[in-house]
């Protein structure tokens, strides 16, 4: 500060920094606020539509519901099938996504890391119906022999109780297809988080004599913990709502839920059930399908809210701090 120059009062300095300085600033602030409000309005509109269209099914008698056992017993097996397939897909995809992200960011040579990351990102651009056709034509036949081995040797576990399917169109195959579909989404989020690890944290670990794995365990993984949770929940949301791939791969032949992953007696997921039955439904049956969609909407919303709560709770313990 030059000699003789006076410092403006604190309130004046704060007001100068906080006030918009130009028309562009005001337009940007207004457009950002409008975009946020628009998202909330769209979400509220979707929820209102689902509730309004599902109301006739919610108030209908048990005899009017397909199956004649009531709305809850109609949706409950579908919900369990949805959660089972999405959870299995997440359990397979999340550890693999973390391993791929670590390899691309900290192990692979620079000439290999960039093309490999690009190829993995391209998997997200493949249409879901292509994944479904691949799972039906290629993956399902390849799972027949392993499923038979699981039934013979691990049949005492409810997940692998026989008899094994002769076509391979099982819940296990559907979960593998979903895992491949959500893998690039989770990998992209985690990879970008690992790349943002403060260089000083990594250099401090090296200076203390840490090995590469110790540096990753003490610096990279704590910093990317929130992103690993967020990316996993983003992939879980994709798996919960996936429709065509599951509808093509899964052989639906049962109305009751089962934990058996290799049997041909499978219950559909909510999204696949809607896609398969909506064109032929009419009257209350349509409202029942929309009611199941409302349940899926609520489940997805709860999953994302739970993930946000976990991320906010872990933020103060993040390696970034």
UniProtKB/TrEMBL annotation:
Gene3D superfamilies: MetI-like. Its main location: membrane. InterPro entries: MetI-like, MetI-like_sf, Phosphate_PstC, Phosphate_Transport_Permease. The keyword Transport applies. It is a multi-pass membrane protein. One of its GO terms (biological process) is phosphate ion transport. Keywords: Cell membrane, Membrane, Phosphate transport, Transmembrane, Transmembrane helix, Transport. The chain crosses the membrane at residues 27-51, 71-104, 116-140, 171-190, 243-262, 282-305. GO terms for molecular function: phosphate transmembrane transporter activity. It comes from the Bacteria. SUPFAM superfamilies: MetI-like. One of its GO terms (cellular component) is plasma membrane. Belongs to the binding-protein-dependent transport system permease family. CysTW subfamily. Part of the binding-protein-dependent transport system for phosphate; probably responsible for the translocation of the substrate across the membrane. This is Phosphate transport system permease protein. It comes from Streptomyces aidingensis. The lineage of its organism: Bacteria, Bacillati, Actinomycetota, Actinomycetes, Kitasatosporales.
């Amino acid at each position: 500060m030059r000699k003789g120059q006076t410092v403006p009062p604190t309130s004046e300095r704060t007001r100068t920094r906080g006030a918009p300085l130009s028309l562009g600033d005001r337009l940007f602030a207004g457009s950002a606020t409008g975009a946020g409000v628009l998202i909330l309005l769209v979400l509220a509109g979707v929820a209102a539509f689902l509730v309004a269209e599902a109301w006739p099914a919610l108030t209908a008698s048990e005899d009017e519901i397909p199956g004649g056992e009531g709305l809850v017993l109609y949706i409950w097996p579908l919900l369990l099938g949805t959660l089972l397939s999405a959870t299995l897909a997440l359990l397979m995809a999340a550890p693999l996504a973390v391993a791929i992200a670590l390899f691309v960011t900290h192990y692979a040579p620079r000439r290999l890391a960039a093309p490999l990351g690009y190829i993995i990102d391209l998997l997200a651009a493949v249409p879901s119906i292509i994944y479904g056709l691949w799972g039906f034509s290629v993956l399902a036949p390849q799972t027949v022999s392993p499923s038979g081995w699981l039934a013979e040797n691990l049949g005492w576990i409810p997940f692998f109780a026989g008899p094994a399917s002769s076509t391979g169109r099982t819940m296990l195959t559907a979960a593998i297809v979903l895992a491949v579909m959500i893998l690039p989404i989770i990998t992209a989020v985690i990879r970008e988080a690992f790349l943002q690890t403060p260089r000083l944290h990594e250099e401090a670990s090296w200076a203390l004599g840490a090995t590469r794995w110790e540096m990753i365990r003490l610096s990279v993984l704590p910093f990317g913990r929130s992103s690993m949770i967020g990316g996993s929940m983003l992939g879980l949301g994709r798996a919960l709502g996936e429709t065509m791939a599951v509808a093509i791969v899964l052989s639906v032949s049962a109305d009751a839920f089962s934990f058996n992953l290799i049997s041909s007696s499978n219950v559909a997921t909510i999204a696949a059930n809607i896609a398969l039955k909506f064109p032929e439904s009419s009257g209350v049956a349509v409202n029942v399908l929309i009611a199941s969609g409302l349940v899926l909407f609520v489940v997805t919303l709860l999953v994302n809210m739970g993930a946000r709560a976990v991320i906010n709770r872990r933020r103060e313990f993040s390696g970034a701090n």
